[in-house]
Amino acid sequence: TLRALIFDVDGTLADTERDGHRVAFNRAFADAGLPWNWSVEQYGTLLDVTGGKERIQHYVKTYEPTFAVPGGDLKQFAAALHAGKTEHYKQLLKDAVIPLRPGVKRLLLTAREQGLRLAIATTTTPANVTALLQSSLSPESLSWFEVIAAGDIVPLKKPAPDIFDYALEKLDLAPEECFAFEDSGQGLKSALGAGLRTVITLNEYTRLHDFTGASFVLSDLGEPDAPFEAIAGDVGN
Ligand code: XBP
Ligand code: MG
């Protein structure tokens, strides 16, 4: 029996990467007086590395190999930059709502009506999940999710299965009792590694990823009442 749905956040609940995270990284770089600016296109390549702190470290090693790291410790430097990035991301979501993807709200509401349990398994920082749900869904929507597994709660990020394993353990459910919702190849690998059936919704950054093993690969979750949502401007409450 199906008992729970486990959701990825970035790219699955909302298209947060291009106009959210990417912009926040660039603002943090500017604050630190760094001349780095990640373009929409380059960010697509950088997304291969999951986790913002890990992404910054990867960027420096790959594209700025001669950069003299202040303090000499790249991990520490990336963590400090990333803390600034998180502040910018939260502020961005306060200034402008990034809408949930089509059909996400309907699916969450329907699942709740039917007594399905909800959880989140994401690589993103916990504060980002809170900020997104509060601004794009509703202040009380955080409580809809029984488990919010996020960020550094497990040492190995996606594509490792650890974050989904963790969510399953907290739900006290077997993978056969759940479905995962993902948008990326790394996310799918992570969910499959945890034994989960997975629904993929594609986006601009992930549409060419390898989705072998997914139960469904969909453009989005917007059918059948997407036109209604569009008319009603169904964002927020
Ligand atoms: C999302 C990520 C995150 C975000 C940025 O992956 O990889 O790193 O890009 O958030 P997923 P942070 O959708 O698979 O969870 O900067 O907080 O890491
Ligand atoms: Mg994602």
From TrEMBL:
<protein>
    <submittedName>
        <fullName>HAD-IA family hydrolase</fullName>
    </submittedName>
</protein>
<dbReference type="GO" id="GO:0016787">
    <property type="term" value="F:hydrolase activity"/>
</dbReference>
<dbReference type="InterPro" id="IPR044999">
    <property type="entry name" value="CbbY-like"/>
</dbReference>
<dbReference type="InterPro" id="IPR036412">
    <property type="entry name" value="HAD-like_sf"/>
</dbReference>
<dbReference type="InterPro" id="IPR023198">
    <property type="entry name" value="PGP-like_dom2"/>
</dbReference>
<keyword id="KW-0378">Hydrolase</keyword>
<dbReference type="InterPro" id="IPR023214">
    <property type="entry name" value="HAD_sf"/>
</dbReference>
<dbReference type="InterPro" id="IPR006439">
    <property type="entry name" value="HAD-SF_hydro_IA"/>
</dbReference>
<dbReference type="Pfam" id="PF00702">
    <property type="entry name" value="Hydrolase"/>
</dbReference>
